[in-house]
Specification:
- α4 runs parallel beside α5.
- It contains 11 helices and 12 strands.
- The longest helix is centred in the middle third of the chain and has 16 residues.
- The chain has 2 domains: 55 residues, DNA polymerase, domain 1, CATH 1.10.150; 282 residues, Aldolase class I (TIM Barrel), CATH 3.20.20.70.
- The chain is an alpha/beta fold and 348 residues long.
- Its EC number is 2.1.1.192.
- Keywords: 4Fe-4S, Cytoplasm, Disulfide bond, Iron, Iron-sulfur, Metal-binding, Methyltransferase, rRNA processing, S-adenosyl-L-methionine, Transferase, tRNA processing.
- It is found in: Cytoplasm.
């Protein structure tokens, strides 16, 4: 299969141009056609010589995302189930905020991390996406927003999959997104979320970016985290916390800790007290997330009053904490739910 044109950073396209006896500036023109003019074919790149367009056609292809279904929430959230060229499917979400449009992207087909409250892991990991398949989700979202003269203002890498188990493709995706000659998304408007893949956390600390890092912890100790997140057996909680402290010391940037509150499991006052003690003196912020109902799981949502009580305990102990504003609750916007339903109906 020919590689996707979206897989290539500008620097890689410049190398390709050199290898194909084309001047380096042609790479910039190609990049402009792809990300600024957002064309769908090489033939549309009308300021390129016909011979160059033929080379591009012969050596590359565009990513095709087939829209299987689309759900629109009352709050403006739009969730897509896209089919890939190998018949796998992925999810992408456009979220409307007062400050702009945020896109939540997927990095893998399925997930092997195995969080017990998450639909993304149902069916396991099928494969990782290429950088271009991740890029295509943002481009597709931007094309939709073009109709109302809006733009993608922020990106969260919190869809299906573990981005730090697809590290190189995720980083190439990020380099393409932030490039000033492309979509030019501000680095501080991008957040990558990991379940705590420790070696990749250390690598990310050395990348010298302004991209935000979020860590899914969901428990204040090793034993409970291992029950909720089997990945904790590979990368124990103490090692994740050590990697977080290294990241903060190396970059000077704050980490967001994501904590999904599950009724009667990890949402008691003693859990809040223990979490505050673990995070004491760290440059961090806790994002409390009322767990989404997943039919295949038996977890219950934490009552509203208990969520606020958990937050108050953290703040009393000087830990900054907010409660995530729920979006798309009426359209099954939790990661993996659309894909799981599609897989079930396809298997029938």
């Amino acid at each position: 299969m020919k590689p996707f044109i979206y897989d290539f950073t500008l620097e890689q396209l410049q190398e390709w141009a050199k290898d194909n006896s084309e001047p380096a500036f042609r790479a910039g023109q190609i990049f402009d056609w792809i990300y600024v003019k957002r064309v769908n074919s090489f033939e549309d790149m009308t300021n390129l010589p016909k011979s160059l367009r033929e080379k591009l056609e012969a050596q590359f292809q565009f990513v095709t995302l087939n829209e299987i279904t689309r759900f629109e929430s009352k709050d403006g959230t739009v969730k897509f189930l896209f089919g890939l060229q190998d018949d796998h499917s992925i999810e992408t979400v456009i979220m409307k905020h007062s400050y702009g449009n945020s896109i939540c992207v997927t990095t893998q087909v399925g997930c092997r991390v195995g969080c017990t409250f998450c639909a993304s892991t149902l069916g396991g990991l099928k494969r990782s996406l290429t950088a271009g398949e991740i890029v295509a989700q943002v481009v597709q979202a931007q094309k939709i927003l073009d109709a109302t003269k809006e733009r993608v203002s922020s990106i969260v890498i919190m869809g299906i999959g573990e981005p730090f188990e697809n590290y190189d493709n995720t980083m190439n995706f990020l380099r393409i997104m932030i490039h000033e000659k492309g979509l030019n998304i501000g680095q501080r408007h991008i957040t990558v979320s990991t379940s705590g893949i420790v070696p990749s956390m250390y690598k990310f600390a050395e990348e010298n970016t302004q991209i935000n890092l979020a860590i899914s912890i969901h428990a204040p100790n090793d034993a409970l985290r291992s029950k909720l997140m089997p990945v904790n057996r590979r990368f124990p909680f103490v090692d994740v916390m050590e990697a977080c402290r290294y990241y903060i010391a190396k970059t000077g940037r704050r980490i967001t800790f994501e904590y999904a509150l599950i009724g009667g499991v990890n949402d008691r006052p003693e859990h809040a007290e223990e979490l505050a003690d673990v995070l004491k003196d760290m440059l961090c912020h806790v994002n409390l997330i009322p767990v989404n109902y997943v039919p295949e799981r038996n977890y219950e949502r934490t009552p509203r009053d208990d969520i606020f009580a958990f937050q108050r305990i953290l703040e009393r102990k000087k830990i900054n904490a907010t409660i995530r504003r729920e979006q798309g609750h009426d359209i099954a916007a939790a990661c993996g739910q659309l894909r799981a339903k599609h897989m079930e109906s396809s298997s029938r």
